C-alpha cells in the first residue's frame, strides 16, 4: 500500500521545494529536481544516511536548500506568523546589504571590471541572488569572457589569500552559482579553459594551511571553496587531500587537541564541505574507481569519530561533525568490497553508543547505515525493527484533543502546549466548514476519521528522526501523510516540529496550513492524493491551505502578485513539478484563491461539487473554458488587496 504525501512548503517556510531524486546524487547540483512538497509517495524514499549539512534551527531559504548554501541566522519575515508580527520583528537588510544584492548593478560590470566589483563586495551573501537570475541576465553575467576574467582573478586571490578578507569567498560563490546554473542547463556549459585556471588554485588552497584557518571576515570561505569542488564535479582530484584533512582534524597522542579547531565557524563549515566531497564522489564515474576498493577513506573517517568523541560529543559548536563524519564512513558500505571492513565499524558504533543518551545521534547513524547497506544481517547488529522501539522512546508524550478527532504524539510538548495546539485546530475546524459549506459531510469512501499529529522538539530532531520513523523526506517544514483514505484502517498523519526560533512564544510550525490539508482531503477532494491531482489543481490545494490558515494578513503574497509576474490563468495551471514552485504555489496560489472567494464565488460553487464527486476531468474542462477571461480583472484586483479584515463565507456549494 502506498502512502500518499502532502508536505508543507509554504510561503512562510522560505524553504525549497526541490530535492535531488535518488537516481542521481545531487553532486554539483547536476541533478533532476522535482518538488518535494505536497506530492509524492513515501515508499519511494531511499533508506540512506543523510548527506552532510550545517545544522540550523531556522528553516533555510529556497536557494540555500537547493544549492547547499550555508544557512543564515537572520530571522526572516516569512518565519514569523502574522499574529506574532507586532511583537517580533525580522532582521531587515541594511541599505548597503540591499544595494550589494542588486544584480542589475552587478550585470553592468564586465570582464576585469566585474572581477574588481566582486572582490570589493562586503559579503558573499550579496551574491546569493546569482542562483536565481533570469535566463537573459544569467547569460550576460556568466558570459565566457566574464567567467575567464573572474577565474583569472580567483587564481590571483588564492595565491595571496591569508585567511582574511571576503574576496575569495565572493569569487567562490560567483563560480558556485555559475556551475550550478550550467549543471541545470540554465546557462551554456562552462568551457575547459575556466577550470584550467580554477583547479590548480583550489588544489593549492586545499593542500595548504590557509584555507582551513579562521577567517573572521568571511567564515564561509573554506566551505565555499570545498563546495565548489562538487559544483565542478571534480571530486576525484581531491579525495586524498580530503582524507589528509580528516586525519589532521583527528586527535592523536601527539596532537591531542586537533579537533578543537572545528569550533571555529570557518573551519567547521570547511569540514562540512570536505565531507560533501566524499558524499558526491560515490556517484562520479571518475572518482568511483578510486574509492570503491580502498578502505582507507572509511577508516580515516571512522577514526575521526572514535578519537574525537570525548572532546566533541558535548561541544555545542562541533558535536554534529561526529555523526556526519560517521555517516560518510558508513556510506562506503554500499561498495561490496568494502562492506566487511565497514561492517566492523558499524557494529563498533552501536556497541559503544546508546539509543537515547548523549551519543544517540551516533547510534542512530549506525542503525540507519545498517538498514541502508546491510539490513539482511540486522540480527547480527541487533537493530531489526529498531524504529518501533526508538519511536516509542522519542515520541513518548501522547495527548488526545477534545472530540477525539486529533491525537498528538509528541517529543517535548507539555500539557499546556498540547492544549494550545488542540485549541488552534478546534478553532480552525468550524471556520473551514463555514468557508467551504461542507455541512460537515465527508466525501464518499473516506475513512480518515482521525488525524495523528506528530510534533518533534525542533527542526533538527525532525530531520534526524522523522525519515526513520515515517519514511518521509524532510526538506520541508513538515509533511502531511494522507495514506489511502478509501481503506477502513487508514491513519492520516501530519509530522511537524516546534518553531523554536519563535520562543518564548509556542508554535507548531505550519500546523494550521497542514490541518487545512487534512480537512480539505476529507471534505472536498474525493480519492487519494494521486487521484486528486490528476489534473492541475495545485492552485486550489495550496492556495486554500494558505488562505484559510493566514486569512487576509499575507503581505508577502500581496507583494508577490503586485510584481505582475504571472497571469491568473497561469496560476490555475500550477502543478507540483513546475519551476518557481514556492512563489507560484503558495504566494500566487493564495492570491488566486482569495480572488476567487472575494470576486467569483460562483466559480467555486461550480467546481467544488466536482471535486467532491471525483470529477476532476470535468473540473479541468470548466477551468479551460474560463481560459484567460479573468486575467485582467485579477490584475486590477491585486492592486486593491490589503491585509485588513478577514475572510467571510461568500457562497454555498450546490
Summarize the structure.
The protein has 29 helices and eight strands.
Poorly predicted parts? 1-45
N-to-C CA distance: 34 Å
Helix proportion: 40-55%
Task: List the total number of helices.
Answer: 29
What general form does the structure show? globular
Provide mean pLDDT, rounded. 91
Beta-strand fraction estimate = under 5%
Strand order of the largest sheet: 1-7-8-6-5-4
Q: How many distinct beta strands?
A: 8
Cα Rg: 26 Å
**What's the story with the biggest beta sheet?**
6 strands, mixed
Which structural class is indicated by helix and strand composition? mainly alpha
Describe the overall structure.
- The protein contains 29 helices and 8 strands.
- The protein has 654 residues and is mainly alpha-helical.
- The strands form 2 sheets. A 6-stranded mixed sheet has the order 1-7-8-6-5-4. It has a two-stranded antiparallel sheet with strand order 2-3.
- Helix 14 runs parallel beside helix 16 (360-373) and helix 21 crosses helix 23 (538-550).
Sequence-ordered SSE layout with sheet pairings:
Elements: E1 5-7, E2 18-20, E3 33-35, H1 62-67, H2 95-100, H3 103-107, H4 111-120, H5 135-141, H6 144-160, H7 167-183, H8 193-207, H9 221-231, H10 239-248, H11 265-281, H12 288-291, H13 296-312, H14 320-331, H15 339-351, H16 360-373, H17 378-381, H18 386-394, E4 397-400, E5 406-410, H19 415-436, E6 451-456, H20 459-470, E7 479-481, E8 493-497, H21 511-523, H22 529-532, H23 538-550, H24 555-562, H25 568-572, H26 581-599, H27 601-613, H28 616-626, H29 631-638
Parallel strand pairs: 5-6, 6-8
Antiparallel strand pairs: 1-7, 2-3, 4-5, 7-8
Helix pairs in contact: 4-6, 4-7, 6-7, 6-8, 7-9, 9-11, 10-11, 10-13, 11-14, 13-14, 14-16, 15-16, 19-21, 21-23, 23-26, 24-26, 27-28
Amino acid at each position: 500500500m502506498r502512502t500518499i504525501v502532502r508536505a508543507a512548503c509554504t510561503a512562510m517556510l522560505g524553504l525549497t521545494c526541490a530535492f535531488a531524486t535518488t537516481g542521481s546524487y545531487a553532486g554539483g547540483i547536476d541533478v533532476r529536481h522535482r518538488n518535494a512538497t505536497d506530492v509524492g509517495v513515501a515508499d519511494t524514499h531511499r533508506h540512506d544516511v543523510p548527506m552532510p549539512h550545517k545544522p540550523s534551527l531556522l528553516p533555510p531559504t529556497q536557494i540555500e536548500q537547493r544549492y547547499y548554501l550555508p544557512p543564515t541566522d537572520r530571522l526572516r519575515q516569512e518565519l514569523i506568523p502574522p499574529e506574532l508580527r507586532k511583537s517580533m520583528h525580522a532582521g531587515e537588510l541594511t541599505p548597503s546589504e540591499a544595494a550589494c544584492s542588486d544584480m542589475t548593478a552587478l550585470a553592468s560590470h564586465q570582464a576585469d571590471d566585474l572581477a574588481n566589483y566582486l572582490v570589493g563586495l562586503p559579503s558573499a551573501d550579496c551574491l546569493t541572488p546569482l542562483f536565481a537570475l533570469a535566463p537573459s541576465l544569467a547569460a550576460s553575467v556568466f558570459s565566457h569572457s566574464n567567467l575567464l576574467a573572474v577565474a583569472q582573478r580567483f587564481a590571483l586571490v588564492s595565491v595571496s589569500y591569508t585567511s582574511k578578507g571576503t574576496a575569495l569567498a565572493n569569487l567562490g560563490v560567483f563560480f558556485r552559482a555559475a556551475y550550478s546554473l550550467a549543471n541545470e542547463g540554465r546557462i551554456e556549459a562552462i568551457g575547459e579553459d575556466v577550470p584550467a585556471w580554477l583547479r590548480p588554485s583550489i588544489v593549492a588552497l586545499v593542500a595548504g594551511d590557509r584555507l582551513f584557518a579562521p577567517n573572521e571576515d568571511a567564515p564561509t570561505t573554506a566551505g565555499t571553496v570545498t563546495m565548489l569542488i562538487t559544483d565542478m564535479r571534480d571530486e576525484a582530484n581531491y579525495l586524498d587531500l580530503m582524507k589528509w584533512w580528516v586525519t589532521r582534524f583527528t586527535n592523536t597522542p601527539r596532537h591531542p587537541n586537533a579537533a578543537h579547531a572545528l569550533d571555529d565557524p570557518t573551519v567547521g563549515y570547511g569540514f562540512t564541505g570536505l565531507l560533501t566531497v566524499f558524499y558526491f564522489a560515490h556517484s562520479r564515474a571518475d572518482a568511483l574507481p578510486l574509492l570503491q576498493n580502498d578502505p582507507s577513506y572509511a577508516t580515516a573517517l571512522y577514526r575521526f569519530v572514535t578519537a574525537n568523541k570525548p572532546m566533541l560529543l558535548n561541544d555545542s559548536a562541533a558535536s554534529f561533525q561526529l555523526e556526519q563524519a560517521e555517516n560518510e564512513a558508513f556510506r562506503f558500505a554500499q561498495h561490496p568490497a568494502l562492506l566487511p571492513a565497514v561492517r566492523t565499524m558499524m557494529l563498533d558504533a552501536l556497541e559503544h553508543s546508546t539509543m537515547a543518551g548523549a551519543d544517540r545521534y551516533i547510534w542512530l547513524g549506525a542503525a540507519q547505515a545498517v538498514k541502508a547497506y546491510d539490513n539482511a544481517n540486522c540480527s547480527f547488529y541487533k537493530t531489526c525493527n529498531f524504529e518501533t522501539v526508538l519511536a516509542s522512546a522519542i515520541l513518548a508524550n501522547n495527548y488526545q484533543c477534545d472530540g477525539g478527532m486529533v491525537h498528538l504524539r509528541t517529543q517535548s510538548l507539555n500539557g499546556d502546549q498540547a492544549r494550545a495546539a488542540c485549541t488552534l485546530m478546534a478553532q480552525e475546524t468550524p471556520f473551514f466548514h463555514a468557508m467551504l459549506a461542507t455541512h460537515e459531510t465527508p466525501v464518499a469512501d473516506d475513512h480518515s476519521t482521525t488525524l495523528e499529529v506528530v510534533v518533534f522538539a525542533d527542526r533538527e530532531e525532525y530531520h534526524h528522526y522523522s525519515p526513520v520513523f515515517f519514511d518521509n523526506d524532510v526538506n520541508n517544514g513538515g509533511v502531511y501523510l494522507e495514506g489511502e483514505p478509501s481503506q477502513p484502517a487508514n491513519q492520516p498523519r501530519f509530522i511537524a516540529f516546534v518553531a523554536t526560533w519563535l520562543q518564548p512564544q509556542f508554535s507548531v510550525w505550519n500546523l494550521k496550513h497542514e490541518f487545512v490539508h487534512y480537512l480539505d482531503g476529507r471534505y472536498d477532494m474525493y480519492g487519494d492524493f494521486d487521484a486528486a491531482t490528476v489534473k492541475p489543481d495545485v492552485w486550489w490545494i495550496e492556495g486554500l491551505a494558505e488562505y484559510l490558515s493566514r486569512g487576509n494578513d499575507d503581505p508577502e503574497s500581496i507583494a508577490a502578485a503586485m510584481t505582475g509576474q504571472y497571469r491568473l490563468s497561469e496560476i490555475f495551471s500550477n502543478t507540483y513539478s513546475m519551476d518557481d514552485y514556492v512563489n507560484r504555489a503558495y504566494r500566487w496560489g493564495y492570491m488566486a484563491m482569495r480572488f476567487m472567494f472575494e470576486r467569483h464565488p460562483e466559480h467555486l460553487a461550480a467546481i467544488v461539487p466536482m471535486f467532491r464527486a471525483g470529477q476532476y476531468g470535468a473540473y479541468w474542462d470548466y477551468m479551460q473554458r474560463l481560459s484567460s477571461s479573468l486575467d485582467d480583472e485579477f490584475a486590477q484586483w491585486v492592486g486593491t488587496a490589503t491585509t485588513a479584515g478577514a475572510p467571510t463565507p461568500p457562497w454555498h456549494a450546490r
